[in-house]
Specification:
Helices cover about 40% and strands about 20% of the residues. It is of the alpha/beta class and about 300 residues long. Strands 5-4-3-6-7-9-8 form a seven-stranded mixed β-sheet, with helices on both faces. The chain has a two-stranded antiparallel ribbon with strand order 1-2. The chain starts with 7 loop residues before the first helix and ends with a strand.
Length: about 300
Amino acid sequence: MTADTITWRELWAETASTLAGRTTARRLGGGEDRQVARWICETASGADGEEFLEILDAPATQRTVHALDAMVARVRAGEPLQYVLGRWGFRHLDLMVDRRVLIPRPETEQVVEVALRLARELRDPLRRLRVADLGTGSGAIGLSLAFEFALDAAEIWLTDVSPDALDVARANAAGIGRHAAGIRTAEGSWCDALPAELRGTFDLIVSNPPYVGDDDAGLEPVVRDWEPRVALFGGGEGLAQTQVIAGQALGWLRPGGALVLEISGRHGREVAALLDTAGFVDVVVSRDLAGLDRVAQAKRAAT
């Protein structure tokens, strides 16, 4: 493509044609080819939304054409669109994402819905909720809760064993402005990352742990090849890390507090049994829009 001889309208059309059927956006809840091409053009041009529409008939500069060409090449090489764009929408947030973290998915939005409902049930107007998002990655779950709670309604701990992932989560926390006032971060494995003095005080613990089996033949190559393995593979059949959280979380919750987990669509019964064995009560497994088991919730007994 040559700068100063092509407009953004033409670039948009050429990009849509070039990338037809090549991206993972549709699988992950994104749009059709023309929409995907628009996202790439917006990122390359630095103009989003209405601003992009206003420059459609303006010629592209050499710098922006080079940026667009580089992004197109990355997508054609198989890199997920979300990493190429460097960001992805999740509920009300526009999150920075790269290969240090999982790409936020629509299924995880259901986890937030369940967590929000339980938080409303658990909230005491005389004090702030205390919440932990274990293995936060990009911060999608914990930051969504912070953004959608009333201001100053919660203290939310974002933990991850990966310092690189925590760097991404901190950057995303900065992006939600004053809603991040209650955000705290801690590096470490699951509940071990939390301050010991807070044991037994959490109202809500939420996690999207790795739950893919080590030999899962159904995992798409684009996911296996590009997303962080530590955030994907749960060990053995995929339940090992979920079992660790189930064993730890009860002692970190206050009486009546709740645990919410994203799970594999094949693990509903097994996770329910793990939670029951760990001593939780009111165990419920709910399904996603595809009819697959997706969210497990349970509580510590009130007394």
